[in-house]
Amino acid sequence: MIKKNKQFRRIVITTGEPSGIGPDIVIMSAQKKWPVELVVCADPNLLLDRAQQINLPLKLRSYHSKKIASPCMPGELSILKMLLPQKTIPGQLNVNNNNYVINTLTRASQGCLNGEFSALVTGPIHKAILNRGNIAFSGHTEFLSQINKCETTVMMLSNRKLRVALATTHIPILSVPKMITQKSLCDTISILAQGLKKYFGVSHPKIYICGLNPHSGESGYIGQEEINIIIPALNILKKNINCELIGPLSADTIFQKKYIQHADVILAMYHDQGLPVLKYSGFGQSVNITLGLPFIRTSVDHGTALELSGKGTALPDSMIMAITVAIKMLTKSSL
Ligand SMILES: NC(=O)c1ccc[n+]([C@@H]2O[C@H](COP(=O)([O-])OP(=O)(O)OC[C@H]3O[C@@H](n4cnc5c(N)ncnc54)[C@H](O)[C@@H]3O)[C@@H](O)[C@H]2O)c1
Ligand SMILES: N[C@H](C(=O)O)[C@H](O)COP(=O)(O)O
Questions:
Q1: C-alpha span between 131 and 5 (Å, rounded)
Q2: 196 and 264 Cβ atoms separated by less than 8 Å
């Protein structure tokens, strides 16, 4: 077991798909001073080449787990070396680099578990290229849950105006109704409430819950899931957890000011019920958080944007926010 450094923290960052904008936005985010050591698990040549392509200074210093953590200066990152099998061309996916992507994520996750790192921040991954190379991968959330043996985790995205969590994540729309059960909802809402208390200082979370069907099922005339699953799950939870649960409310009207201003989070039943609203209210200014893992994990709110890679035009705001929120979460959780 590696001793946790009490003075400065180390955050591990994965840059995700090497031909995407992940490396660019990490290098851009490193141009400012951070109160923690940022350790990037990546190929050093990928980062140095990309820094040159986007015309930014970058100095890499070797990461040593036994050295005392110290904050990186602007333009500097610590590097936990992983080698790419093939040189990356910005914007060009290469199935031969898939294992590299998975290995960086696995190594970073292990480092969080064993106490080397205080949090994991991830850059965007391209799900299709991994699957094309026969790696079943539907998202970081599912992958990290699986390798850390977590039965339930919760995806929550947050920006200055809104927090949205999801009852189901990356599954086909056809599978959504059968994946929402009383147990899955009870587990999801319990993790959500615990996460808000532990990391965000919300002592009595107010959680607004969407219905699944149009008009929340219209008293059972447009779908039965509200009556058979969502309402009974909320009734069980109301007796057992210390938080306020409001719903199910129609998803088409739940995102209005009078609810949002009181809600600590809105729970959507599926990906595209909640995330379009969240991203409309602040795409590029939001952070993706996984609750329920044995460590803090944050990420960007956007994808690989292959067409912007290596050009210097990708915006780093969401990556900066992901690092900032990880630091805030670890400060709160250790209070
Ligand atoms: N955190 C993640 O790992 C993550 C998140 C979302 C999507 N993805 C994956 O990324 C891949 C591409 O997805 P997509 O095309 O739907 O979404 P995308 O976010 O990559 O791109 C959508 C649009 O937003 C723009 N954009 C995205 N990030 C930007 C940034 N930082 N600065 C400026 N403009 C930006 C793009 O140019 C494009 O017009 C998919 O494989 C998807 O699954 C990964
Ligand atoms: N659902 C996320 C989004 O739309 O931003 C994204 O696909 C990333 O999810 P993971 O963190 O599970 O990779």
A1: 38
A2: yes
For residue 139, report the distance from its CA to the centre of ligand 2, in Å: 6
18 Cβ below 6 A of ligand 1: no
> Does the CB atom of residue 88 touch ligand 1 within 6 A?
no
Strand runs labelled E in 211-295: 244-249, 265-268, 287-291
Cα(221) to centroid(ligand 2), Å: 33
CA distance 244 to 207: 6
In residues, how long is the chain? Answer: 335
pLDDT in tens, 59-79: 999 999 999 999 989 999 999
Q: How far is the CA of 280 from the centre of ligand 1 (A)?
A: 14
**Which residues belong to the annotated binding site?**
140-141, 170, 215, 271, 279, 288, 297
Instruction: Name 10's bridge partners.
Output: 37
Burial 147-159 (b: 16+ CB within 10 A, else e): ebeeeebbbbbbb
Binding site membership of 241 for ligand 1 (Cβ less than 6 Å): no
Tokens of 40: 């990037």
pLDDT at 335: 64
- Does ligand 2 come within 6 angstroms of the Cβ of 159? no
C-alpha 22 – ligand 2 centre gap (Å) = 14
* 298 within ligand 2 shell (Cβ under 6 A): no
**Cα separations (Å) of 139 from 83, 98, 131, 290?**
22, 14, 11, 11
Q: Which of the four pLDDT bands, split at 50, 70 and 90, describes residue 7? A: low
Instruction: Tell which one of 304, 306, 315 to mutate to probe ligand 1, the residue whose CB is within 8 A of the most ligand atoms.
Output: 304
d(CA 74, CA 51): 13
Phi, psi of 308 (to 5 degrees): -100, -10
Give yes or no for a contact between 310 and 25, defined as CB atoms under 8 angstroms apart. no
Residue 229 phi/psi, 5-degree rounding, is -125, -55
> pLDDT tens-digit profile of 143-197?
999 999 999 999 999 999 999 999 999 999 999 999 999 999 999 999 999 999 9
The residue contributing the CA closest to ligand 1 atom 33 is: 314
